[in-house]
Structure formats: structure tokens, C-alpha cells
Amino acid sequence: MRRDYDNTDYCRRLHALFKPGNGVSPPVLAGRDDELDTLSKRLDLLVCRDEIASDVVLYGPRGNGKTVLLREVERLAERAGADTLTLRPTQVPSALDLAKQLLYNDHDALGDLLGRLTPDATAQALARPLADKGVEFDPDALGAVVEDCQGYPYVTQVWGQALCETLVERRAPRISLDIVERARPGVDREREDYYQDRYTEMENNDLLAAAMVVGDVYARANERVDSQTLRAALVAAGAASAESVAKAQVRQLATLGYLWRQPPGVDWEPGIPSLMRYVNEKTARFAPDGEAGSAPPSGMSP
Fold first, then answer.
1. CB within 8 A of 78, min separation 6: which ones?
2. Count of CB atoms within 10 A of residue 88's CB?
3. What CA–CA distance (Å, rounded) separates 10 from 229?
4. What is the pTM of this model?
5. What's the alpha-carbon Rg for the chain, to the nearest Å?
6. Cβ–Cβ under 8 Å, residues 128 and 30
7. Which of 47, 114, 187, 241 is within CB 3.0–4.6 Å of 60 for a Cys-Cys bond?
């Protein structure tokens, strides 16, 4: 396919190829074939009235594509002639109780439904849409981008958008390491804005000290951590006055997407790749002598 960078329509379509955002469908829904196949078969059974209706729960850290997958299921349902109804939590009384019932009370949650993308799926999500526009990756360039995405769908879309913008700007025929490095500052800015929003959420909920302690635990452990270890670290660092407070903090951090575990799992893992490092680096300057777990002084904005 010919690339005409002097063609305004071509440049506009290349710019619009990737659209990172809340629930915006990517050009290629990579790494979700098994989940879509399972959901499609369940839908077929329901349409044929061969199965009693039951709940299916999609769960995962924010930015991992829950809304995108729901919209794809909605399209499948419409093609199958099934009616769909969309409700937000604010439209459902006792939304928290409803969520607890769906996740933990003998309903049909589809296992590890929305985990990270594999490296191959990440590469597919980036390379296939661009290949359709006649743009190819150098192998080392694709490897560098896939590594930086860390399997996180939102960052994958941010990288796709930044690469398209750089391609048009540089009139480049393919994506080389040079194009990747020229696109990287834009990705870093977008990611920092996204992380700053998460940071502000924790600041508004008085969770920065707890988040920093938890981040320090993971920096040392470099693996999943059980609840007791997290609670003990919070109490020991003075971020929580008692274990009951620490338990509540862990729960709040999970609600904000800072922590994540697959129900009914026991061990916690970071909810968003590299967010913990961002929070620790941003708050560390307020910690005396590099002491972990210190929050910014009262009245000061980091």
C-alpha cells in the first residue's frame, strides 16, 4: 500500500488509527480471542434458549479493556438478535453489595478474564493496524515498544497513537528505533498525566503514605504479596495506626486500582505496571532521609 504523507486524508486516518481512552475500541482487539469465543458461545446458547441465564463477571485492573470487551459483546448480541441493556453503577441500588454478590457468591466469573496482554498479543495490537496502512516495524523497534507497554492495553494504544504522529511528522516509511525514540517523549507525557490522575485520587483519599509503603514492599519483594505482609508493613511504617486501619487501606488501594488480585485469590499484585514506581519517586522527596512511608507534609501539594 502506497504511503502518501502529502495526502491530508491519509495523514488524518493514520492519526486516528489508535485512540487511547476510556472504553474506546482499539483497531485490533488483540489477545482476547479466548474470552470472546467463550462469551460468544454462551450468547449463542442463550439465544437458542438452551441454557438458563446466569451472571458473567468481567473483572480486572482499570485500563485492561473491560469496557471495550463489553462493547464487543454488545455488538455480538445485536448481530444475534438479542436485546441488550446497559446500566452504570449509579443506576443500581447498593452497587457495592451487588458487586460483592457477583464476584464472590457462586456466580460465573470467567477466571483470569482480563489480565495483561502477552508480548505476542501486544505486538499484534500494534503491528496489524499499521500493516493494513502499509507501515511495517523493524523487529528491534517493535520489541522495544512491546517491552515498554508491559502488556498494559492502555499504554499500547498510547504508543500506537504516538508512533502514528511521529510517522507523519517525519514522513517515515517504516518504524525504526529512531522513530520509537522520537515518539517516546509523547508516550511518557501521556503516561505521566494518567499516573498523575491516579496519584491525585490517592492524595484525595489520604492514601499516599500507605501507597508509598506498599510500593516499597513490592520494590523489595518483586513478586505477589499476601495481605498480612502488606498490613504488617503499613503498621510498622506508621502509615496505619492499627491492623484494622491497614486492612481498610489495602481495600481502598485496590478500589483505586493500585492493587489487584484475582478473586478468590490471596496474594496481591500491582494493579498498573510502573505506577508504584511513579508514586514512590513523586513522594520520596518529602520523606526525611529517604525513609519509606512518609507522606507529603500537610498542606503541601507534591
1. 84
2. 7
3. 54
4. 0.70
5. 22
6. yes
7. 114
Cis peptide before 263 (omega within 30 of 0): no
Of 67, 41, 58, the closest CA to residue 107 belongs to 58
| Pairing mode of beta strands 267-270, 259-260 | antiparallel
Mean per-residue pLDDT for 269-276?
82
The Cα 48–Cα 45 span in angstroms is 5
HEC letters along the chain: CCCCCCCHHHHHHHHCCCCCCCCCCCCCCCCCHHHHHHHHHHHHHHHCCCCCCCCEECCCCCCCCHHHHHHHHHHHHHHCCCCCCCCCHHHCCCHHHHHHHHHHCCCEECCCCCCCCCHHHHHHHHHHHHHHCCCCECHHHHHHHHHHHCCCHHHHHHHHHHHHHHHHHHCCCCECHHHHHHHHHHHHHHHHHHHHHHHHHHHHCCCHHHHHHHHHHHHHHCCCEEHHHHHHHHHHCCCCCCHHHHHHHHHHHHHCCCEECCCCCCEEEECCCCHHHHHHHHHHCCCHHHCCCCCCCCCCCC
Q: What pLDDT digit, counting tens, does each position of 143-197 carry?
A: 999 999 988 888 999 999 999 999 999 988 899 999 999 999 999 999 999 899 8
Which grid coordinates are listed for 69?
470487551
The 10s digit of each residue's pLDDT in 205-264 is: 999 999 999 999 988 887 889 999 999 999 999 999 999 999 999 988 988 878 887 666
First CA to last CA distance, the chain: 49
The x, y and z cell numbers of residue 100, run together, are 460483592
Do you know the residue count of the chain?
302
Task: Name the amino acid, one letter, at 27.
Answer: P
Which triple of cell numbers denotes residue 140?
528491534
